[in-house]
Design a protein that fits this description.
alpha+beta, 2 helices, homodimer, HIT family, subunit A, 5-stranded antiparallel beta sheet, 30% helix, globular
Amino acid sequence: MTTRIYENTYFYIDKEDATIPWVKIFAQKPYKELSDCDEQTKKAMLDAMQIVEKVMLDYYHPDKINIAMFGNYVPHLHIHVMARFKEDSHFPESMWGIKQRDSKLKLASFDSFVLQLCQKLSQTN
Amino acid sequence: MTTRIYENTYFYIDKEDATIPWVKIFAQKPYKELSDCDEQTKKAMLDAMQIVEKVMLDYYHPDKINIAMFGNYVPHLHIHVMARFKEDSHFPESMWGIKQRDSKLKLASFDSFVLQLCQKLSQTN
């Protein structure tokens, strides 16, 4: 099940079902690469990526933000933004790497994070 | 051994020693997250990321570009930009995932790619 947390003309943001705070920003149009985007979509997505990062940092105080644009399985442009913690399941490996441990993270409410994120995103658009 | 392929006031670009075309754009200053950057560095790095992507697409015609900002091991802001091919060692997994096969890629000259990349980067700055 996909949880949609935000949407506008240019992109939508889905929650990844994971043990860390992890969202994916998808272009509304079926672009494959960042280079394929019209300028407005590109700007909107890169701005959103930075807003997600900033709200994650302020809200979760993670040890590191991880960002990725892969799309090898799903060639529809999307940006992963993840809050990483030293005690999460994979740190310091990427979330696509080898699992290091069972996660015992106790995280603040994702719903409250989404509320703050949507406020910031709405202020920007 | 690190191969430096480009440098300016805001960032430098190193070649990753890999079986695919793979470069890393590092901030000159020891920023940890994209949010920590001054505006000029942030713009310069995100512009460079897009130029690297575009030149890789035009030069190598890969099946997909992969971009990542992790920095869990090295908390010094850097952007990985990779040209991915269906027959590369890890596709469709990320380069941090499980190896799928031995790579038998026959790639065009990396030196010529660097030449084209540096021309584009110099035109932009």
